Amino acid sequence: MEISKEQVLHIAKLSALKLNDDEVVKYGRDLSNVISYMDKLNALNTSAAEAAEHAMSVPLKMRKDEIIQPIDRDEMVKNAPKSEDGFFVVPKVVG
Predict the structure, then answer these.
(1) Domain ranges (residues) in the chain
(2) How far, rounded to the nearest angstrom, does the alpha carbon of residue 70 sit from its chain's CA centroid?
(3) Which residues contact 47 (CB under 8 A, 6 or more apart)?
(4) Is the confidence at residue 6, as pLDDT, over 70?
(5) Rounded to two decimals, what is the model's pTM?
(6) What are the DSSP calls for 61-92, one per residue?
């Protein structure tokens, strides 16, 4: 499947990316390759394959619940680049 320039620009806009013309062409080609590969995978007959939660059998590591002392707020934010009234101050990310 060929990804159009408009689709690449739309994805870039949704991702808050600014792409130059060369990048639009490159990422369009890359995305087209990924989707073509997914089409090949979709064509495989997987009816006999068993569903798996994980590629390998991994035992769960259980631990005992323990009550611990909470971390002091002032101690927690002392190394923060910026804090105010015991809270981390971070840049606004949602407009």
Answers:
(1) 5-42
(2) 30
(3) none
(4) yes
(5) 0.50
(6) --------PPPPHHHHHTTSSSEETTEE----
